[in-house]
Specification:
This protein folds into 2 domains: about 160 residues, Rossmann fold (3-Layer(aba) Sandwich); about 120 residues, no CATH class. It is built from 10 helices and 9 strands. Strands 2-3-1-4-5 form a 5-stranded parallel sheet, sandwiched between helices. A 4-stranded parallel sheet has the order 7-8-6-9, with helices on one face. Helix 1 packs across helix 6 and helix 4 crosses helix 5. Keywords: ATP-binding, GTP-binding, Nucleotide-binding.
Length: about 300
């Protein structure tokens, strides 16, 4: 097998961020998976896969701080892969301190970096130790607000069989700035300059998926002109992302609360991408929480 046709995914990141679940999902996608592989064995493992006469064409391994002193050799192991002509991708999983503490308390497990101390101390120490590796990652995924099924869905979108080689999978995410910007967004759009349906009483309880809200927004000439220009920009730049080998692109669309304007714009972008035959998904991160009674504005 050509070494460049061997697909290796190195999964790493914070303890409790979902690495095991991600590995299980990849195993379901046909990957040959190994958890907690010492970095010194990576090159031997990949060579064995390459010699399998096509039986193992894609593999995923988890390397993290559970490996103790062995983990420090990961940087050298990755350099060995490059010298030998093997291609690889690093997926780094992380989550907020609050989410990680909650998960550890629910599982009643000790943190590997603070077995006798506070969980938060271990999390902070782990962040420091992994900072350089995080900077080398090809993809960073924040799992703070993801349920298990949502994590599996994102892993499948990124690395599943449904995505052909050389294709670009695009995720469009609407959000509210008051709840924070999506950490994994590649392109960000701030649409708070558009007319806000929140101030129209009959539109306030609706979301940007409703035709009345969409009509209110897109009947405005500024919104029409903006949408036309932005879609033309996407039409121009997306082929270049494909040409550069980017596998996944996240477009974040934000308004104040993530209920009206960002949702409507994200839906319109999704329609365009679907017409262009891209593998895509549209998610509305904050629309539901605003419909539970919180003020959007």
């Amino acid at each position: 097998m050509d070494r460049k046709s061997m697909k290796l995914l190195v999964i790493t990141g914070l303890s409790g961020a979902g690495k095991t679940q991600a590995l299980q999902c990849l195993e379901d996608q046909g990957y040959f998976c190994i958890d907690n592989l010492p970095p010194a064995f990576i090159i031997k493992f990949v060579e064995l896969c390459a010699q399998s006469q096509g039986k193992v064409s894609k593999a995923a391994i988890v390397c993290d701080l559970r490996g103790g002193e062995f983990f420090t050799s990961l940087a050298e192991a990755l350099k060995d892969l490059e010298r030998e002509g093997f291609l690889y991708e690093i997926l780094f999983l992380e989550a907020s301190d609050e989410a990680l503490v909650r998960r550890y308390k629910e599982s009643r497990r000790r943190h590997p970096q603070s077995p006798q101390g506070r969980i938060l101390d271990g999390i902070n120490e782990e962040r420091k130790l992994l900072a350089e590796l995080r900077g080398q990652a090809h993809k960073i995924m924040d799992t703070s607000n993801l349920l298990s099924q949502q994590l599996r869905q994102q892993i499948t979108e990124l690395y599943g069989e449904g995505r052909g080689q050389g294709q670009l999978a695009i995720s469009v995410i609407s959000f509210g700035f008051k709840y924070g910007v999506p950490l994994d967004a590649d392109l960000l759009i701030d649409v708070r300059f558009l007319p806000n349906p929140f101030y129209v009483e009959e539109l306030r309880p609706l979301t940007g998926e409703h035709p009345l809200v969409q009509n209110y927004i897109f009947n405005n000439p500024v919104a029409q002109e903006f949408m036309n220009r932005y879609l033309h920009l996407l039409e121009y730049i997306l082929p270049y992302y494909v040409k550069e080998g980017k596998s996944h692109l996240v477009i974040g669309v934000g308004c104040t609360g993530g209920q009206h304007r960002s949702v409507a714009i994200a839906e319109r972008i999704g329609l365009f991408l679907n017409e262009q035959h891209y593998t895509m998904s549209v998610k509305h991160r904050d629309a539901a929480r605003n419909r539970k009674g919180e003020k959007a504005r």
